[in-house]
Design goal:
- With 210 residues, the chain is of the alpha/beta class.
- It has a single domain, classed as Ribonuclease Z/Hydroxyacylglutathione hydrolase-like (Metallo-beta-lactamase, Chain A, 4-Layer Sandwich).
- It is 35% helix and 23% strand.
- It has 6 helices and 10 strands, in the order H-E-E-E-E-E-H-E-H-E-H-H-H-E-E-E.
- A hairpin with an 8-residue loop joins strand 3 and strand 4.
- Helix 5 packs antiparallel against helix 6.
- It is globular, with a radius of gyration of 18 Å.
Length: 210
Amino acid sequence: MTRQPSLLRGLMLLSFCTTAGLLIQAQPITTDTHRFTEIRNGIYLAQTTDPVFNSNSLVIVNDKDVVLVDSHVTPAKARELIAAVATLTSNPITALINSHHHWDHAHGNQEFSDIPIIGHEFTYMKLAASPLDEPTYTRGLAGNDARLRQLRDQIVSTTDEAERNRLQTDLELFAAHVQDFEEITPIPPTVTMKTRMTLYRGRRKFRSCS
């Protein structure tokens, strides 16, 4: 099987290619929507706190700006990420890197149309073609429908009022998440690379490689 080009391998090594600091084991910073775990000086793993399927992101806080890796699963989740990053730093977000083309990592791209979006040539090709017809995306939509049916069935079948209330809350949250998919307009990278790219941000230098 041919390996699809991706920046993921290089980005996994990102914290070891920087000039800043040692490995950190700090308490996570939690906002209304995200949990940020600092894995190296100014480099955070960003995870949504909602109980929905969503990719993680990487937040790289530099001297004067912020670089993000991956834009989450929907524009709504991307907006939540942008707002949450503002609680970490007042530095502006100046670049977004797509690790690869899968929908859960790149379908928030439209919220970053005013800054460079960096990705592999293959990522551009996939996102500029028919990303809403990609099997991974259509399977995701089918999974959403299945989860909605499951929650509704559980609400009907439970005899415990507290459990029913909890399930109803989960259903409302998940239904809102599913509705967010309707505003997705996939945006491909605006800057592409084939094998390697080096970004310089203040004292930090890091490489993206496929």
